[in-house]
Amino acid sequence: MGKKSEQSKDIRLAATTRIWGCTVVILAISVPLSIPLRNSLIPLAALAGATVGTVAVWRDDRKSKGYMAPQQVELLEQRIRDLEAIVSSEDYDLKARLKQLESNNNGNGKYYDKK
Are 34 and 40 in contact (CB under 8 A)? Predict the structure, then answer.
């Protein structure tokens, strides 16, 4: 595996360690408090949050890297071709208008400011 892959695993491992480290602290504080109160909601929420956080860190991140389905790529390529056609036609229209303006100004193609 490449250096980039090893680095992403190191980041994931560090994030997972921090998530579960915080969870242990939360559990150490909330479990003794939840026993006399007979309320186990906070420890369960801490465990659920740590689990969801770990799954989010280690999930398959192909979508976040910008991978698209071939149909999506084809659709985007078609849109780009359409936009290029629009820009090209507008560029052609602009050049035609400029030539017309040049030919209308004094007949020699130069523009003179009439003051």
Answer: yes
pLDDT in tens, 64-104: 556 678 888 899 899 998 888 888 877 777 888 888 888 88
- Tokens standing for residue 21: 């480290």
Please identify which residue in the block is written with the tokens 């969801």. Answer: 52
What's the distance, CA 80 to chain centroid? 20
Taking the C-alpha atoms of residue 49 and residue 53, their distance in angstroms, rounded to an integer, is 6
DSSP structure string for 4-50: HHHHHHHHHHHHHHHHHHHHHHHHHHHHHHHHHHT--HHHHHHHHHH
**What is the value of pTM for the model shown?**
0.47
Question: For residue 51, which of 59, 40, 61, 39 has the smallest C-alpha distance?
Answer: 59
Rounded CA gap, 47 and 40, in Å?
Answer: 11
Q: Give the span between the Cα atoms of 87 and 80, in whole angstroms.
A: 10
